[in-house]
Design goal:
The protein is α/β, with parallel strands linked by helices and 603 residues long. It has 18 helices and 21 strands. One of its GO terms (molecular function) is serine-type carboxypeptidase activity.
């Protein structure tokens, strides 16, 4: 009965969409299921995915041109907090896919060791609708013709804004939700630019904040920090011979940086080899006669040369295999992207002419005048390490003062364990995360989730389940932890929502009139009944893993990838950029030399 009614409504809505809009209807993005993702059948995730036209000049293009189409995966919030929120997530590179975030970090899944994935607690979709965006075009499942690659951060921003315009035409109900940008590593460049572009656009969306994890923001502070960090974590001993050599290399690099005037560099080619030079002392022979070096994303580990961290985390192999499956590509509505998914596409990095854009450090102060920004840092990361981020914050002038000023840095604990430190000053929050890598949410999902809920100002008194039961505190400010008095007194409304939320929800349904929401209503009705039954059986265990660390560094070696990496990295990068200028036009996607490549400032 119910499904029949649902399909009737669906076709009605579909036909009205086809008549009025040239973006596909929301229902065409709906992902009812994914192969080998073992979901709770009672609480299936609500997923949408696909391509959206994202070329701001598409209307002037020849109809035969392949214009930019960014790709997204949206996972709707599983539970309701005090209000509805949406976050757009970006991994870095440049050229690295946001499937890193989705499949290994802040998303709802973790690999099951059998080629599939289990749904896990700790994902940010618990209370926030998460939209993972593959950008700039050519990254991940996104595509464009090779003569239309993005060359500057300004172009990347226009592409993202055009993506948003079309995204909100498909999902108008998201436009009024509190909106956040989040990401890591090279997204430390994207996010301030994107935030600025959104704030100056006609989109008129409530952008409430931006969060950047181990971001590459300020080359001037980050390059010299390799040496300081290496001393701090005990890789180098001050004044030792190895230290003196590393210092010499650092000074040479800094002379190059200082010679650049008139703009803040995003990167300096002759400094790119510095992080491995500084940590040369960690080079050794491995058990199989392989040469080993430091894992630049987590200094607690080593990796084989020349990968030095590219093989980490071990999830990258199963994720790549999974996304190469035809059934998966079809289920994700990614079939318009003709090639295999690769985590990072070197070509995208080469095409981004960094010398033409100011580093985002010049943009962040104006963003901070308008919205709060969270800088967070796993303390075991070398490549975008916290020492450099702290020196960047100390040197930055924003909202009328330089540095954090007199505010107190407070200790932060999650589930009774020290999680890190926390400090906020004039709209900037800095959170240092203990015992976490470059991909902090990979190591400590519950800690990083607590962090983002705090940053977004989620009213902890208003949340009831899952992470609501994990205690946490910053200084003396303790989270209100939900106590279930007894199953008898459980909230009568199945979704546990407030009347305001219900009102907002129904308003959204009427305004949107999208097929997607019709489906949501049907699922709420069915799901609500099932949920009621399930809730009574629910046991009250704390869903937190006391020991979240579980990072076996498998030494899975991919020789091709490693060789590729060596030829693309370090000081050779600059010359390669120039060689690649005359790329074939009207070639969709990437040439055959496109391949697996992970940039050192990736993710
Ligand atoms: C870069 O930023 C600096 C300082 O904000 C400014 O003086 C300079 O004009 C900018 N350069 C470019 C190319 O945008
Ligand atoms: C901080 O952000 C808010 C918006 O959340 C904004 O109104 C305010 O002007 C910003 N500046 C300062 C100094 O707090
Ligand atoms: C985590 O970090 C803290 C502070 O740096 C340290 O005291 C503690 O031993 C670390 N725990 C583990 C398991 O490494
Ligand atoms: C937080 O939520 C609780 C429970 O819904 C409510 O009583 C309280 O007023 C809320 N606090 C704020 C600051 O909105």
């Amino acid at each position: 009965m119910l499904p029949l009614l649902g399909f009737g409504l669906l076709s009605l809505v579909l036909s009205s969409y086809a008549a009025s809009l040239d973006v596909p209807p929301a229902a065409s993005f709906w992902v009812p299921s994914l192969p080998d993702i073992h979901q709770d059948p009672l609480h299936p995730l609500n997923i949408y995915a696909g391509h959206l036209s994202s070329d701001p000049h598409a209307s002037e293009a020849n109809p035969a041109d392949v214009t930019a189409h960014l790709y997204f995966v949206m996972v709707k919030n599983r539970r309701h907090a005090d209000k509805e929120r949406v976050m757009f997530w970006f991994n870095g590179g440049p050229g690295c896919s946001s499937f890193d975030g989705l499949m290994m970090e802040v998303g709802p899944w973790r690999m099951d060791g059998k080629g599939g994935f289990n749904v896990a607690e700790g994902g940010w979709e618990e209370y926030t609708t998460m939209v993972y965006v593959d950008q700039p075009a050519g990254t991940g499942f996104s595509y464009t013709s090779t003569n239309r690659y993005v060359h500057t951060l300004e172009e990347a921003s226009s592409q993202f804004i055009e993506f948003l315009r079309n995204f909100y035409r498909v999902f108008p109900e998201l436009k009024r939700m509190d909106t956040y940008l989040g990401g890591e590593s090279y997204a430390g460049q994207y996010i301030p630019y994107f935030a600025n572009a959104v704030l100056h656009s006609e989109l008129n969306i409530p952008l409430m904040g931006a969060a950047i994890g181990n971001g590459w923001i300020d080359a001037r502070r980050q390059y010299p920090s390799y040496l300081d960090f290496a001393v701090k974590v005990g890789i180098l001993e001050q004044n030792s011979d190895a230290w003196k050599e590393a210092k010499k290399r650092t000074d040479e690099c800094m002379a190059e940086v200082e010679a650049i005037t008139g703009m803040e560099p995003i990167s300096v080619p002759s400094c790119e080899g510095l992080l491995l030079d500084v940590t040369k002392i960690r080079e050794r022979d491995g058990p199989d006669g392989q040469k080993m070096c430091i894992n630049i994303y987590d200094v607690r580990y080593d990796d084989v040369q020349p990968a030095c961290g590219m093989n980490w985390p071990p999830d990258i192999k199963p994720v790549t295999d999974y996304l190469d499956r035809k059934d998966v590509v079809n289920a994700l509505h990614a079939q318009d992207h003709s090639q295999s998914w690769v985590e990072c596409r070197g070509r995208i990095h080469q095409e981004l002419h960094e010398r033409q854009s100011n580093s985002s450090i010049t943009v962040i102060p104006s963003v901070l005048e308008r919205i709060p920004v969270l800088i967070f840092a796993g303390d075991q990361d070398l490549i975008c390490n916290y020492v450099g981020l702290e020196s960047m914050i100390n040197a930055m002038t924003w909202n009328g003062e330089t540095g954090l000023g007199k505010v107190q840095t407070r200790s932060w604990s999650v589930a009774g364990t020290p999680a890190g430190t926390w400090v906020t000053s004039r709209n900037l929050t800095y959170a240092k995360i203990f015992n976490a890598s470059h991909m902090a949410p990979f190591n400590l999902p519950h800690v990083t989730h607590d962090m983002i809920l705090r940053f977004m100002g989620v009213n902890f008194s208003a949340i009831l389940e899952g992470s609501a039961r994990i205690p946490s505190s910053v200084g003396s400010d303790s989270k209100v932890v939900y106590q279930e008095a007894s199953t008898e007194t459980a909230a009568p409304v199945p979704t546990g929502k407030t009347p305001q939320q219900d009102k907002a929800m129904w308003e959204a349904y009427y305004n949107a009139g999208s097929a997607a929401l019709v489906l949501v209503i049907i699922f709420l009705v069915i799901g609500g009944c099932l949920w009621c039954r399930h809730r009574r059986r629910r046991n009250l265990q704390l869903p937190v893993n006391q020991d979240e660390e579980n990072i076996p560094l498998t030494m899975n070696q991919e020789h091709n990838e490693s060789k590729e990496f060596r030829s693309r990295k370090g000081k050779e990068k600059a010359t390669e950029v120039d060689e690649d200028e005359d790329s074939p036009i009207f070639n969709v996607g990437d040439s055959d030399d496109e391949d697996t490549y992970r940039d050192r400032r990736r993710d």
